[in-house]
Amino acid sequence: MKRIVDPQQSRLFDPFDPVLTDKTRSQLLNGWQGVVRHVILELMPVHTLGGHYSANMGRPTKELYSMAGLIFLMEFLNWKKHEALTAYSFHMDVHYALNMEPVTHELSVRTLERYILLFEEDALAQKILHDVTITLAKLLEIHIDKQRLDSTHIFSDMAGFGRTRLMGVAIKRFLAQVLRHDRSAYAALPESLRQRYRPSVHQMFGDTAKDKDSRLLLRQQVAEDMHFLLRHFTQASLLNNGTCYKAMERIFYEQCNVHEEKVTVKAKTGSHTLQNPSDPDATYDGHKGQGYQVQLAETCEPDNEVQLITAALPQTAAESDADAVEPVLHDLEASGLVPQELLVDTAYAGDDNVQKAASRGVELVGPVPGCGGPVGDEELTIDDFTIDEATERVVCCPASHEPVSSDPDPETGKTRTVMAESACRNCAYYDQCPVSKKHNGYQLDHTAKQRRIAARRREEATDVFRERYQIRGGIEGTNSGLKRRTGLGRLRVRGRPRVFHAIYLKVAGWNILRASVCTKMRELVYQRATMAVWRDARMDVSTVLGRLGLLRGPALSSEPLHDALAGFFSLPVAA
Measuring CA to CA, how many Å separate 459 from each of 74, 348, 368, 378, 453? Predict the structure, then answer.
């Protein structure tokens, strides 16, 4: 039977009055505890969570707002499970934040894990981030016109293996399954093979020399062992349907080739390869390593008292930043937080992304990818020509000479422009002009993309662009703060569902931490806390007097008596 206590529900008496002084209450209201209690707790998706329980049958659940809130706090405060249980049972500030009585509460690890599993099944973490972000942006009146985008790498709770050890670990785990389910089949394997993978993961291959040739020979031996096991057990239905066999099979075909029964190890593998059998979803980034990443969009308006993360897009590490612009903008549109300008680094700022962003009304600001670099003042480019952007026809050159012809090709998207030889031969810009001498005259070929890129490169060289773009670097501090404060850099979980769950909640928690230091948020928290106590006082006076028969009917609207008796109730003192 589900048990839900509305955080806005009035109480007869504030249970924290006997245990909090004005100073300690003020500390709670000024911290994340006050923001969670009076702003965020009511946003928890308890009705979705409660859908797993009957309304009137069975043993009562834990209070669902407090459990949803605890799972949220556990992630963004980077608690281990036993730390979350201790906080739920004994910490008064957590009791205040979760609208619980300031007494001890019992909670088991199994119960906590069951609620976490329900969170992951219903993808509630993403909903929490969405609701928290929209609510805080609205309450704090955050300006969203200018935002910045960047990615940061995340390690899951898995060991990092080289290619040889990865294959060896996969074999070792499969052999453990063979020994457990079919001892006779295990005993029938060659003794040398069994001995090779009997040591622990960290001691395996410890007797192999460290020189390059020895390591290559070992890798070849491990690959051949894996190939032998795959063929040997291909008909063993009891074993070849398990996760260990399938992981070994995937690793083998990602790392090796087989030609006429000869096994060769690939010189290089792609980034979308399995990195550890414990986390089959993790991939590889050549610069940052194994694991995951998250794309973060953050406001960067100077007028904002604090900056909030407006979108978080978790990905595996192999995903390219260049492919992230459109999904991030889609997420921002769903939240109603689309900016006018989005500052990005070079990886995001390709021409295709600029056009996609422009179609959504967003200006993508960032350096042009490629080795062209900013254009010098003396060098002429296609940007110096006068071009009709609707047709891509050249109207005139930088020296104001009209072309003999300028014909766009709809199939290739290229425009071929021919200039008069008499105009180009004696032109003052002859040495700087991109028009080249061809057999049929002086010719220039360009595309709309080349024209746009040339214009952007010219803009990059200006002080206006540098001043406009320099604020993008501030998101690096956000990435660093997220990892230090919430533990985002190395998570305590592995596997795509749990990793994404943790990322969403940690990012939402970061927004709460930022909001808690905002003057406007503190004023709002004090106002809501004061109004709650005042509302409780008025209701309680009416209830008591009504029960005593002192007030009946219209007399309940009498203000002076309510105001006099309400003075006996303690109200929070604003800082």
Answer: 47, 17, 10, 15, 10
Q: Is 348 exposed, middle or buried (0-12, 13-18, 19+ CB in 10 A)?
A: buried
Distance in angstroms (rounded) separating the CA atoms of residues 6 and 3: 10
CA dihedral 346, 348, 351, 357 (to 10 degrees): -140
Q: What are the C-alpha distances in Å from 557 to residues 13, 149, 537, 549, 560?
A: 22, 55, 14, 15, 9
**DSSP secondary structure code for residue 280 in this structure:** T
Residue located via tokens 């529900």: 9
Alpha-carbon distances, residue 79 vs 29, 73, 291, 358 (angstroms)? 22, 8, 21, 42
Please give the model's pTM, rounded to 2 decimal places: 0.87
pLDDT at 529: 87
Q: For residue 545, what pLDDT is reported? A: 47
Query: How large a percentage of the chain has pLDDT more than 70?
Result: 91
Give residue-wise pLDDT tens across range 497-512. 999 999 999 999 999 9
Specify whether the CB–CB gap between 309 and 296 falls below 8 A: yes
pLDDT surpassing 70 at residue 554: no
